[in-house]
């Protein structure tokens, strides 16, 4: 497909598109929401609480497109069906899914409870599977779409105090590849974004541990913990037509962490 004549920076725009972002009103998710809103997309947030939703609504009012909200635990029965149905009801279409909701439980290997394992796998991996399934059914009918899963450095490496999290994020990478292969013929690109070490509440415990903090900073060629806003460009790229020939990759946004 020769695009030379048509190509311009509008390929990075999302005007008229509709996105679901799980956990999209707080933590890193709010930066994905703001990035998509600024690029022209309408955004449906799905999370348990409405923390951050009114702030996003105000942001959307200032920047153009609308925001919707559905309160759901993504791991609950039928949550994926409900979230996709609510999006279609409000916006009439679905073009982009960002599976961002995630949890982490830290413990020594011999102290992990079975229910901790199950909960992390349910939220981080199984919910992403169900949401991708429901979203793909809609996208396939409408001619295509984008599914972006959120991985982690633990998609590549081990974390000895976060067994279930490491397994879930390796799983996210595998799920991304399998769906990318299966959905390519439907013009649905499936990729993952793997944030490196980002300055958020989830990582405060590491930043405050002086020894671990120094270890991490020495491991990042770029030399700093990223601000969450440093992920905004990559998420828009993966959601936009500019990345249409990219599928099945897990893109590290890590200041070079994985190089060492
Ligand atoms: P936060 O804990 O700050 O935010 C998580 C978001 O997900 C919240 O909006 C929360 O909303 C929502 N959420 C959590 N559980 C559920 C659930 N069961 N159902 C619906 N929504 C849920 O986490 P981060 O922003 O730090 O992380 C976001 C994603 O990025 C995760 O997948 C994480 O693994 C990944 N990541 C984070 C990194 C970091 O440095 N912070 C690094 C690499 C990856 P509510 O509580 O209202 O449901």
Automatic annotation (TrEMBL):
What's its top-level EC category?
Answer: oxidoreductase
Asked whether the keyword Metal-binding is assigned, the reply is: no
Query: InterPro entries, from UniProt?
Result: NAD(P)-bd_dom_sf, Sc_DH/Rdtase_CS, SDR_fam
Recite the UniProt keywords alphabetically: Oxidoreductase
Q: Name one GO biological process term.
A: bile acid metabolic process
**Recorded GO terms, molecular function?**
glucose 1-dehydrogenase [NAD(P)+] activity
What are the EC numbers?
1.1.1.47
Q: Name one Pfam family in it.
A: adh_short_C2
Which superkingdom heads the taxonomic lineage of this protein's source? Bacteria
The entry sums up its family as follows:
Belongs to the short-chain dehydrogenases/reductases (SDR) family.
- What is the name of this protein? Glucose 1-dehydrogenase
